[in-house]
Amino acid sequence: MWRHGIQSNRDFIEKLIWNLTDMTWIEGRFEENVITTTMEDAMNWGQQSSIWPMTFGLACCAIEMMATGASKYDIDRFGAGAFRATPRQADLMIVAGTVTFKMASRVRRLYEQMADPKYVIAMGACTVGGGPYFKHGYHVVKGVDLVVPVDVYVPGCPPRPEALLEGLMRIQDKIKARKVTKGEQKLPVPHHSGYSALNV
Amino acid sequence: MDIQEIHSLLLEKFGDSAVGQAPVEATDSWIQVSRDSIVEVGAFLRDNERLRFDHLNDLCGCDYLEPNEKKAAKFGHDPHVEVVYQLSSIELKHRLKLKVVLPRWKNDEEGRLPEVPSVSGVWGIADWHEREAFDLVGIHFQDHPNLRRILCPEDWEGHALRKDYDFPLEYHGVRGR
Q1: Using the beta-carbon criterion (under 8 Å), do B172 and A138 form an inter-chain contact?
Q2: Distance (Å, rounded) from C-alpha A95 to C-alpha A159?
């Protein structure tokens, strides 16, 4: 999926040249400490750097989510450490744990109470597709994507904190690729492809 | 006090119509009690000064059924449900297990839950345990103060830990399987 962004080396160079010619005529024409960028980049950068997740632990994955928030893994490095206790202040719902049918309506309601733009991470095997309860769990929703639209799936049982951080970075990529103005929506470029600084 | 002594004490008090056999060959033996006398037996076990079963550790329902026809021949039990009472005496430091055997459906009409008198008047904790057994195994406890589902949603259909339970195809618009 990521390959569509930059297909080949030549493509990369073309886009680099395009980027430079587009932007550099204005670079260096001002005094020091003046940075030029686009409105879109600035907005997306601001939003991707302050994703506030909702406090939303349903089962054992929540323990791993807490570890992600704690000092060793420190999700606050990504500006996503402000876990909000209300959906109205949250941008991201990390569905961490088994979603039961009884909980499904609550998950849906909380999702609808969140303000746009909102993102959902399905964390762990249970939320991705029912997990160990797929066959014999009479009470388990077979994947939270049957209830709310999911942006990023993080598999694992439970996923390690690194995996959740990876999922968070995918959300950041998705925000970064968003178009505020007119124009074609670009597929998000993964942050670690080596081209991410280019912002094509 | 061991189970043989308790058994003979109960036989003496209630007679063999109320108290069944205590299988001695089982490593963890139990006493079978008839459906109608469970409350009296419970109160006796709690109040008798030689027994003092003041604590109900657990109460659970158990469904004996093999839905797979090929395996049913080797199953070794007639289809029935049981209510199991795990008792212990904190004061005298001994334990006891009681069982009440019920039909799977009342009068063998499918959908009518088997009934057993509630022991929540004897041990207060039985209230929630009986709600759980009602919710998941489908046993109706007579004279229970608040017999509602405790784990599943209120509008859930069926009793999920029955061996012949069918998963719902959907629940409130969410696909079930």
Answers
A1: no
A2: 12
